[in-house]
Write a structure and sequence with these properties.
Blueprint (H helix, E strand, L loop, with lengths): L3 E8 L2 E8 L4 H8 L18 E4 L2 E4 L12 E3 L12 H8 L9 H14 L5 H7 L10 H18 L1 H5 L2
Parallel strand pairs: 1-5
Antiparallel strand pairs: 1-2, 3-4, 3-5
Helix pairs in contact: 2-5
Length: about 170
């Protein structure tokens, strides 16, 4: 039985080719094979949202997707939001609004909210709450996360479209 397969995908704008174990999750591939440790593994069952990445413009739990399923697709991780050495406006807003405490959930939260802002540049508080419904913050930073997202949305709209979709 063949347990290895060749995959080719785009991760943070870079074409990646690799031979992987067919049982490896996308989260494991990103962390172990590519060294992208910003993608956290919390529950490893798709219940906490720590491992959220953007797969073809949709926020997904990378612990519930096999890496082989990402072949031929585009993945963006928290590391991919850095643009010319600058944080994404959403990342900056999280810092400004104290939307992080322990920080473990932060990458997954930001990726869920980045996907939201890409499709809805001016979200309501309800839109934000719905977008992070599957992301669990043990520190209870939800009000600050909502405020940070609203602030980032406003700044991004003022700056123009280059911030909305830029990675």
């Amino acid at each position: 039985m063949q347990n290895k397969r060749h995959i080719a995908l785009s991760v943070n704008g870079e074409r990646i080719e690799s031979d992987i174990d067919i049982r490896m999750t996308l989260a494991e591939f990103l962390r172990e094979d590519l060294g992208l440790i910003g993608t956290k593994i919390g529950c490893n069952r798709g219940e906490c949202g720590c491992c959220t990445v953007i797969l073809d413009d949709k926020a997904v739990y990378s612990c519930t997707i096999l890496a082989i399923e990402a072949s031929g697709r585009t993945v963006t991780t928290i590391e991919g939001l850095l643009n010319n050495g600058e944080l994404h406006p959403l990342q900056s807003a999280f810092i400004e609004h104290d939307a992080v405490q322990c920080g473990y959930c932060t990458p997954g939260m930001i990726m869920s909210l980045k996907a939201l802002l890409d499709r809805e540049p001016h979200p309501s508080e309800e839109d934000i709450k719905t977008a992070i419904d599957g992301n669990f913050c043990r520190c209870g930073c939800y009000p600050n996360i909502v405020n940070a997202t609203l602030s980032a949305s406003e700044k991004m709209l003022q700056k123009g479209d280059e911030s909305l979709n830029g990675c």
